[in-house]
Structures are given as C-alpha cells and as structure tokens.
Amino acid sequence: MYLIWCFFIEVPLAHQFGLLYVMSRAKNDEDSEKAKQVLKLVGERIRFLREAKGERNYEKFAFKHDLNRTQLWRYENGEDLYFSSLLKVISALDITLAEFFSDGFDQSANS
After folding, report:
1. pLDDT recorded at residue 59
2. What one-character-per-residue DSSP string does 45-97 give?
3. Cα–Cα distance for residue pair 49/24, rounded to 1 Å
4. Theoretical Cys-Cys bridge with 43: which of 3, 9, 55, 78, CB 3.0 to 4.6 Å?
5. Residue 104 phi/psi, 5° resolution?
6. Distance between CA 98 and CA 101 in Å, rounded?
7. What is the structure's pLDDT at 82?
8. Taking Cα atoms as reference points, which of 42, 34, 103, 108 lies closest to residue 75?
9. How high is the pLDDT of residue 60?
C-alpha cells in the first residue's frame, strides 16, 4: 500500500527503496529465528553428508567438486545461501534434493 502511494506522490527513488526495505524487514523479523534454525539444519546436513562420503576436509571436497571453499564453509555453518548454490552442493554430494531433505526437516516445517 505504501509503495503504491509513494509512486503517486513522487517520493524520491531512494525513499521508495527504503520503504521496501522496511516493509520486507517487518515480515522477516517475525520469521528470522525460524529461518536461522532451518539454515542451521541445512548446514548440519551438508556437513553430515560430506563426512558420510568420507570427505573429512571441506576444503578438499570443495576443490574436488569445483565449489568455492569459503562459501561451502559458510553454508555448513548455517549462513544464508541461494537455492542454486544448494543444488550445486547437493550435486557434488551425488544425492537428490528429496534425499537431502529426507532427514531432519520434517520437524522444522511444522513448528
């Protein structure tokens, strides 16, 4: 509502984006804790599957599969990631998306 109103009264562009940020942030603040928990689960799952494949060192795994080692470390430690990046990691782990999310994610979806 505010965004449309801003276009009609010709608020400078920087202020329009500021409103977009505030509007999107309000919703994200409510869900940020749950998102952090899910990202932590994703990271733990990546690390578990990598180690289950016998790859103890994340740097060697990243080099072997042409992944950015710093990004892989961030993902394994629960930082945000693009879906396309997750798909690359899942491909390097040689599993399907369904297999990746088959263990440990059912509880977080319901809470």
Report:
1. 96
2. HHHHHHHHTT---HHHHHHHTT--HHHHHHHHTT----HHHHHHHHHHTT--H
3. 34
4. 78
5. 95, -5
6. 5
7. 94
8. 42
9. 96
Place of tokens 């979806």: 109
Domain 32-110, CATH number (from 1.10.260.40, 3.40.50.2300, 1.20.210.10, 3.40.50.1220): 1.10.260.40
Q: How far apart are CA 75 and CA 86, in angstroms?
A: 9
Reduce the DSSP state of residue 48 to 3 states and report it.
helix
105/43 Cα distance (integer angstroms)? 12
pLDDT of 86: 95
Burial of 45 (0-12, 13-18, 19+ CB in 10 A): buried
Rg, the chain, Cα only: 19
Q: Which residue has the tokens 């990631």?
A: 81
Token pair, residue 72, equals: 């892989």
